Queue: 2 jobs
Job 1
Amino acid sequence: MAAGLAVAGPVTPSQAAASDCTGGARGFRDHPDNASGDTDKPRRLDLGGGVVITLEKGAYVGQQIAFGKISGPTRPGDKVWMDWRAGGWDDGGRPEWPVRPWLQCGPFTVQSHGQSLTTPFKRTSTDPDYQFRVCGSLATNGVVRCATANGVDWW
């Protein structure tokens, strides 16, 4: 897996909130913070000190899903989120739910030392315009980074 890179340019949309994707909003589904996907992680990045963000993939009722995760020796204030973009063909079903340029699912903030956190999951698609990425930051420096593979952050 390739090392992660700091992302140049804006990483977050102008407005983002965990409520944009929790409780079933926009087709996302909540699940336990200790959940893990397949052993093959589409994206992985060590933010520093062994704190890792991963883009996880797995299956739920026969459909492939994706979600973000932060794990390792986390500290309160560390953050993770998952961005989703769909090339305009899936806006979550309602015009007040725009996903352009993308929808940020999170941030979700670590509350205790060593806590693992996941974002809600969303089904994936074979459509190349339907993509995900995972980003995060450490409380110690606040630098936002997104996990990459071969220099590409979106999966």
Note: Confidence is low (pLDDT under 50) at residues 1-10.
Job 2
Amino acid sequence: MSTKHRQSVNVAVWGPAGAGREGGRSTVAEQGSAFDGPVVSSAHLAAGAMPALSEFEFGTILVSHAFERWMVRCMAAAGVPDLSPVDVLVLHAAHHRDRPKRMADLCLVLNIEDTHVVSYAVKKLARLGLVATRLQGKEKLVAATPAGAEACRRYGEIREALLVRSVAALGLDRAALSTLAAQMRVLSGHYDQAARAAASL
């Protein structure tokens, strides 16, 4: 590629709207400092009062999809293929502290509004012999079976070997990571509140 041709290549920079000829899209030649701006996927949203929140949302999008892929692949490697991300989450939650969980508690802990989603996952896991259900009064209790507990154990081993070890090698501040997790939980409450407000519009 010639020098002249290289100089004419457009590199998209997703900055605030109006930051270039194409309303948020500019070229390196036109806006050399644009890479200092927020890294977002929706420049029209980042143009508002809090671009940092758009950065957080873009990071959340990437992490959520990567995390879902990881859960499915890790559980498949543990010997249980064809589970969805929700199936894996429900299995781990049912096995948490090795005691039965109410369906309502599974929905609450996982912040899943549609109870049918969790109910479907429980039925699927029960068909596979990974969880068992029983009634306690009018409440349905869900618990991991020995097979489900073994799947969680193998998942944990693979997680330690492939994920935890590589993340630990980055030398991240573990206290800072815990603080970040706490802040994300707080932010989830604000998104829930905003969703309730939006539903009333």
Note: The chain has two domains: 1-48, 51-170.
